[in-house]
Design a protein that fits this description.
The complex is a heterodimer of chains A (about 600) and B (about 375). In chain A, helix 5 runs parallel beside helix 12, helix 8 runs parallel beside helix 15 and helix 8 packs across helix 18. The longest helix of chain A is centred in the N-terminal third of the chain and has 39 residues. Chain A has about 600 residues and is mostly helical. By secondary structure, chain B is an alpha+beta fold. Chain B contains 8 helices and 22 strands. In chain B, the strands form 4 sheets. A 6-stranded mixed β-sheet of chain B has the order 7-8-9-3-10-11, sandwiched between helices. Chain B has a 6-stranded antiparallel β-barrel with strand order 12-13-14-22-21-15. The relative contact order of chain B is 0.11. Classes of the chains: A mainly alpha (about 600), B alpha+beta (about 375). Chains A and B meet through helix 13 and helix 14 of A and helix 1, strand 7 and helix 2 of B.
Chain lengths: ~600, ~375
């Protein structure tokens, strides 16, 4: 009898679609996120094939060599770990502060003042974030590189004749500037959301009680948004910390190393064990940040102030400053969002780098046949088969990943929200968020080591396109899950139950009731993975092979070889595709990354 | 003293006219309600007087001082208008204790510490929330939060107090209690109250003047009982009173005596209180309050069939079918009526309203008798 009851219990458990989804996700995600973590740990204690001679132990045997070298070997540790570690922290902290200052200022301007051209500002302000992170880095180089390190000088030197200083062109300063601007939209979205949802009555009440603007800011607005602000800071911090491309472009010329660039060097070189340890360190920091974040947002004093949209936000009247400030913001935006594109276009038409006279312009790099004097007879972009392959691969990969990540994210968000509070749901929620914490490059490295050989029924996937798909899907799942959970939590359970009672099947409930209601939120769950995938470099850089190359890795290769024109042209191509796609989706469905901010 | 005057005040949101050419005088120490369905511009009006919203056009004077004038370009900021504002959702600062919430305004005015403590103590006592002074707003019930919000608003002793639907978030019992409380406060604080609500009962019971609004226009500005007894138009008649007034569409059959024809073939004679001349064929609307319809055994003016009877003890609401027109009547006393029965009706008093059906305006009041 008891056994039969058990079986029936199980049956009714699995009759509910959200339970099935949760169980499947626990198994699959457990395999794809926890196993890799274990693999990483094991790898740090194992002798790798390239190290057999240095360690003098057979491949695969246990060793403490890597840990010793990284943490306790004087100069070696200093150079390979401690210095990059400090650099990483400094870079992440400063970029984060800059991002929050810029993003916060723009968010405040757009949500709380009567500045003009709000929707334009809001849309264009997203560009730096939508564009690949190295876009601005390349633009910075196009403008400010100097001949001392970078070969040909940039626009600035060409126009003014002044040689830019090394600190200004390379290393900490430009990395912070570029990452600050790149992540500013991220801060803008988060802070803008808080400001828009914060009840304006709270500020008005203070104003009526004779508080001046400064007092209101200090005593009311800031304390109320502080927990959310802190959480924004932590999220941006973990993103800047794991950024690879920008330090690689701007730091390498002066040997300014951070953890990610160090990881790339070691994983790609002789000592993968070092790389795995660095990856572990970054994961630990990531987890610590997440826990700190949960503590910050979960305390007694982290009040819920978001009482829904306040209908009567009274905007700060900028009076005479209104038009000048609008112009200023628009000019800044054009400088960071549009000017880089112009620079790519120009650079891609220039024959000899650094010479901007009209005679030096050529279409060789776009449509040329390829000649032996230039870049090893590499044909122009538009007739270059390997670039076409990269483009189709990139598009194919992004579309498939976005379809997978979006759909799985949607389902997991649905199931998590449905069973909110249960153990299973918490586990899945954390599992889907976990990939967010692992730095992209480390994630790529793990999958490389995991799928290099056949394990059980899972074939060796290295070199296959589907490995890229799996990595992308798992890595971008958090975006889709977040937006799906948010969408589901806004929806009361009765809405679905009303359908259930009328005998509407689950698939129909999902496609005809739930999806249409929160359409734009769900669609952004598809949009984000697509865009991220299209511009991703560090996640795939260790995994691609010549037949699976994608645009971003091609760009990186051209850049390393110093074939600037090709890199610029490819970058222009990526940006146009990503921005164009975003605008298209926005027009068609109303979904967009900056959803809702500045629309009032 | 704070007499508030609005002259030709208009507010546009883009092309949408929220308030249109509003003129109003709010007397010192009065309790004025802005009443109307949602979206009629009442909250906007209140926020414009407080200075939280800028009118598109017009002049606002508080206490003989012009605080806003579109022509002269005057716009005094809210904190310089000496007004208090009670928000619908209270807007208590979640990161401050009850005490801090109340003392905040006084600190901004740079009051000395001991005087602040005295004043806060006084307010806590007045609103009976002394024991909560160390708590955070999230640890209070709705009614307690409401009291804290009132104490905070009163702290700086504003001469005019504006309230935006302050009771709408409370349950029925608390609402009753707070109504009494607000009336007491109005008397004790000796200030002018302007109150926004969509609840006609609240407006009727609390205020000394009601400003009834619809789609940005003032419909009637009068003491509550006058709005009830002598509604300016069919909207005012219909909005105030529960159960609703009976509105019967009719046509003038003969002018003298004034006989009204309605339904398929029913007639009644209307005798106006003041001389009145109407053309034959004129389309009108009769407005009869439910308590003015009585059911009688004999001497009936007209007959109707009982459709339903809802006795509640003190009174019974009866739905009647009069020649295809549904009427409601309120009969006082613990009576019940048999559904489907034919009964005789009479119309009590000289307060029967006659409206012009074209523009809805009140033409006359008078008595209704047998034609």
């Amino acid at each position: 009898m008891i056994k039969k009851a058990r079986v029936n219990q199980l049956k009714s458990f699995f009759k509910k679609p959200h339970n099935v989804i949760l169980v499947v996700l626990v198994v699959v995600l457990g395999y794809l996120t926890l196993i890799p973590l274990i693999t990483i740990v094991v790898d740090t204690f194992t002798v790798h094939s390239s190290e057999v001679r240095a360690i003098k132990l057979p491949m695969g045997s246990f060793t403490l060599y890597h840990w010793n070298k990284i943490f306790a070997s004087g100069m070696t540790s200093q150079k390979t770990f401690y210095e990059p570690f400090v650099n990483t922290m400094v870079v992440a902290f400063l970029s984060c502060v800059l991002a929050i200052l810029i993003g916060g200022l723009f968010a405040w301007m757009v949500t709380r003042t009567n500045i003009r051209a709000k929707s334009f500002i809001s849309t264009v302000f997203m560009f730096p974030y939508i564009m690949p992170s190295w876009t601005l880095a390349m633009a910075w180089l196009n403008f400010f590189k100097n001949s001392r390190v970078g070969g040909a000088p940039g626009f600035f030197t060409a126009l003014t004749g002044l040689e830019t200083a090394n600190w200004f062109a390379y290393g900490l300063f430009p990395i912070v500037m570029v990452q600050g601007i790149h992540y500013a939209p991220f801060a803008y979205i988060l802070i803008g959301g808080i400001l828009q949802n914060m009840d304006a009555n709270l500020e008005e009440a203070a104003m009526l009680l004779h508080a001046n603007r400064l007092t209101i800011m200090k005593k009311v607005t800031l304390p109320i948004v502080r927990p959310a602000l802190l959480s924004t800071f932590l999220l941006v911090f973990s993103s800047t910390m794991s950024a690879f491309a920008v330090p690689a472009f701007l730091g390498s010329p002066v040997r300014y190393q951070v953890l990610t660039t160090q990881m790339y060097r070691t994983l790609n070189g002789m000592n993968p064990g070092y790389g795995y340890i660095i990856a572990l360190v970054m994961i630990v920091i990531g987890v610590a940040i997440l826990m700190l974040n949960q503590w910050v947002t979960g305390r007694r004093k982290s009040y819920v102030t978001i009482t829904g949209k306040s209908s009567n936000i009274s905007l700060v009247n900028l009076r005479k400053a209104r038009t000048p400030l609008t112009v200023l913001l628009v000019v800044i935006l054009l400088m960071v969002a549009i000017l880089p594109l112009v620079s790519f276009a120009i650079e891609s038409f220039i024959m000899a780098p650094g010479d901007y006279s009209l005679a030096n312009f050529t279409t060789e790099f776009w449509v040329g046949q390829g000649s032996p004097e230039i870049a090893n007879s590499e044909p122009g972009i538009l007739r270059n088969p390997s670039i076409w392959l990269g483009l189709t691969n990139s598009l194919k990969l992004s579309l498939i990943v976005s379809a997978f990540a979006g759909t799985i994210g949607l389902l997991s968000g649905y199931a998590v929200a449905k069973k909110r509070g249960s153990k299973l749901s918490t586990i899945v929620n954390n599992l889907t968020f976990f990939p967010y914490l692992i730095p992209s490059m480390a994630f790529g490295a793990i999958f490389l080591s995991m799928f290099a050989v056949r394990r059980g029924f899972i074939p060796a996937l290295y070199g296959s396109f589907w490995l890229l798909v799996i990595v992308g899907t798992v890595k971008y799942l958090p975006f889709a899950t977040r937006s799906s959970v948010n969408a589901m939590l806004q929806l009361s359970g009765e809405i679905e139950e009303a359908g259930t009672i009328m005998g509407v099947g689950w698939i129909k409930r999902m496609t005809r009731i739930i999806f249409p209601i929160q359409r734009s939120t769900f669609i952004s769950g598809y949009l984000l993975p697509f865009i991220s995938c299209m511009r991703e470099l560090s996640l795939f850089i260790l995994l691609v092979t010549p037949s699976t190359r994608i645009l971003t890795t091609l760009l990186f290769q051209y850049n390393e070889k110093g074939w600037n024109q090709y890199a610029n042209a490819i970058n222009l191509m990526i940006v146009v595709i990503v921005v164009g796609f975003n605008l298209l989706i926005n027009k068609l469905t109303g979904a967009s990354i900056d959803k809702g901010i500045g629309s009032n | 003293m704070p007499r508030i005057e609005l002259k030709h005040v208009t507010k546009m949101f883009g092309k949408f006219v929220a308030v249109d050419d509003l003129n109003m005088i709010i007397d010192d120490r009065s309790f004025v309600t802005l009443l109307g369905p949602s979206g009629c511009g009442k909250t906007t009006t209140l926020r414009m007087i407080a200075g939280l919203e800028t009118p598109t056009e017009g002049t606002i004077t508080i206490n003989d001082r012009v605080v806003f004038s579109s022509e002269e370009g005057i716009d005094v900021p809210p904190d310089k208008r000496d007004v208090g504002f009670l928000f619908q959702n209270y807007a208590l600062w979640p990161h401050m204790t009850v005490y801090k919430n109340i003392s905040f305004g006084l600190e901004n005015l740079k009051w000395p510490k001991d005087r602040i403590a005295d004043r806060v103590e006084e307010l806590l006592e007045m609103l009976k929330i002394t024991e909560f002074s160390a708590r955070y707003p999230s640890e209070l019930s709705g009614g307690q939060q409401q009291r804290v919000a009132i104490a905070r608003t009163l702290s700086t002793g504003p001469k005019a107090l504006f309230m935006d639907e302050p009771l709408s978030n409370l349950d029925a019992k608390l609402r009753m209690e707070m109504r009494t409380e607000l009336k007491r406060l109005h008397r004790e604080t000796d200030s002018t109250f302007v109150y926004v609500t969509h609840d006609q009962l609240e407006a009727m019971t609390l205020s000394t003047m009601v400003c009834l609004m619809k789609e940005g226009y003032t419909q009637q500005y009068a003491p509550p009982l006058e709005v009830y007894r002598k509604p300016a138009n069919t909207f005012a008649a219909d909005f105030v009173g529960s159960p609703n007034i009976n509105l019967i569409e009719a046509e003038v059959e003969t002018a003298t005596p004034l006989v009204l024809k309605f339904g398929t073939a029913s007639r009644l004679k209307f005798t106006a209180n003041a001389p009145l001349a109407l053309k034959e064929g004129k389309q009108v609307t009769l407005g009869i309050r439910p308590e003015h319809i009585t059911i009688v055994e004999e001497g009936a003016t007209i007959e109707a069939e009982i459709q339903s009877s809802l006795p509640s003890g003190m009174e019974t609401i009866v739905a009647l079918d009069l020649d295809g027109i549904r009427l409601h009547s309120v009969i006082f006393g613990d009576l019940d009526f048999e559904v489907g029965k034919l009964v005789g009706l009479t119309f009590k008093g000289a307060g029967i309203n006659l409206f012009d059906r074209e523009d809805g305006r009140l033409i006359a009041q008078g008595t209704l008798t047998k034609a």
